[in-house]
């Protein structure tokens, strides 16, 4: 249920009505927009007399929300959420960022070299896997804690905030200095992990699962937000279909659809979606044109010898070319 307050409502009146609602055993999410204030009622709203609420002097309208995701719902929060990664780097609400780096951190020289090259080309955030979930138990699983230290060193040298995947609640203390915690596709419905991430206030980049609907993605975001962490970034990274020519099928229709459903920022990962380097550029440009708030691309200085996902990785030179084209697309669609 949401209640739209009249523009004339004072802060004292709003606090009074919020106290009354909470006394009924229902939580209140307050969203103050440029032109109106919306109260989102979360919980068993059957306890609330809808007609009584609507009759109050400061209430303009009241309506029930059928979708099970409340905090992530644009109806509760009409304005786009802007997630602050650093004071100078924000994502959402017109703030666009390019995230780039290798699939996995392999060595000191590798991650430092790639970080410097992607930064010079216009990337503003560095991605890199320290903990790697792999389909085969015999594949490279990442450098783990050592990989995190190398990422932090790359951050110190380049100034780029880092994005890396967390796989287990037990590892959370290791991520204290990581700027954005990524929840991978395989963990999208790891609800215990999501609950613990909700207790942090770090930005969380939540990837869509291989076979999950947009509603399920938003419900996973809801788990994080229900814990009090509203710094959630959604990531479309392709879903599994019957098509075999690409690694996954990149669902670009998810971008405008999510834009209608939620206020959260949306990032697209064309690397994992296609699994092929030559397809990354057209899909990245299409994602920028579709209105994504950011693009996440895998870049490796020696893709042929990469320990993980070399086939989908761009070289630094290819990434530089792509980044310049993305900036042109962004200018075209925002003018």
Question: Could you explain how this protein is built, in words?
Answer:
The protein has 335 residues and is of the alpha/beta class. Helices cover 34% and strands 18% of the residues. It contains ten helices and 14 strands. The strands form three sheets. The chain has an eight-stranded parallel β-barrel with strand order 7-8-9-10-11-12-13-14, surrounded by five helices. The chain has a four-stranded antiparallel sheet with strand order 2-3-1-4. Strands 5-6 form a two-stranded antiparallel sheet. Strand 10, helix 5 and strand 11 form a beta-alpha-beta unit. The longest helix is centred in the last third of the chain and has 19 residues. 44% of the residues are buried. The model has no long low-confidence stretch (mean pLDDT 94).
Total number of β-strand segments?
14
The pLDDT mean sits at 94
> Taking Cα atoms only, what radius of gyration do you get, to the nearest Å?
21 Å
* Residue share in β-strands: 15-25%
Strand order of the largest sheet: 7-8-9-10-11-12-13-14
Instruction: State the helix count.
Output: 10
Could you name the ranges where pLDDT drops below 50 across 5 or more consecutive residues?
none
Structural class: alpha/beta
Largest sheet: 8 strands, parallel, barrel
Give a nutshell description of this structure.
The chain has 335 residues and is of the alpha/beta class. It is built from 10 helices and 14 strands.
């Amino acid at each position: 249920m949401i209640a739209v307050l009249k523009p004339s409502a004072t802060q004292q009146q709003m606090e009074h009505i919020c106290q009354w609602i909470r006394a009924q055993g229902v939580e209140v999410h307050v969203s103050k927009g440029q032109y109106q204030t919306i109260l989102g009622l979360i919980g068993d709203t059957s306890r609330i007399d809808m007609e009584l609420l609507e009759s109050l002097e400061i209430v303009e309208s009241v309506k029930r929300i059928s979708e099970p995701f409340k905090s992530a719902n644009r109806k509760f929060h009409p304005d786009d959420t802007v997630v602050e990664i650093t004071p100078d780097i924000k994502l959402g609400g017109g703030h666009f960022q390019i995230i780039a780096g290798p699939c996995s951190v392999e060595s000191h020289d590798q991650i430092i070299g790639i970080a410097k090259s992607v930064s010079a080309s216009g990337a503003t955030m560095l991605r890199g896997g320290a903990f790697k979930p792999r389909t085969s138990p015999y594949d490279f699983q990442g450098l783990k804690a050592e990989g995190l230290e190398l990422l932090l060193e790359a951050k110190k040298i380049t100034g780029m905030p880092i994005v890396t995947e967390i796989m287990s609640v037990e590892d959370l203390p290791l991520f204290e200095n990581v700027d954005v915690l990524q929840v991978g596709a395989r963990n999208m419905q790891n609800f215990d992990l999501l609950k613990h991430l909700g207790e942090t206030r770090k930005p969380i980049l939540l990837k869509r699962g291989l076979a999950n609907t947009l509603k399920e993605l938003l419900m996973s975001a809801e788990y994080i937000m229900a814990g009090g962490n509203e710094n959630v970034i959604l990531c479309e990274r392709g879903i599994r279909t019957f098509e075999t020519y690409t690694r996954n099928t990149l669902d670009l229709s998810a971008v405008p659809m999510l834009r209608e459903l939620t206020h959260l920022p949306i990032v697209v990962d064309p690397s994992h979606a296609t699994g092929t380097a030559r397809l990354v550029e057209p899909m990245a440009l299409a994602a920028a044109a579709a209105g994504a708030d950011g693009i996440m691309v895998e870049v490796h200085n020696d893709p042929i010898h990469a320990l993980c996902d070399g086939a989908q990785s761009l070289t630094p030179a290819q990434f530089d070319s792509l980044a310049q084209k993305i900036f042109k697309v962004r200018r075209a669609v925002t003018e």
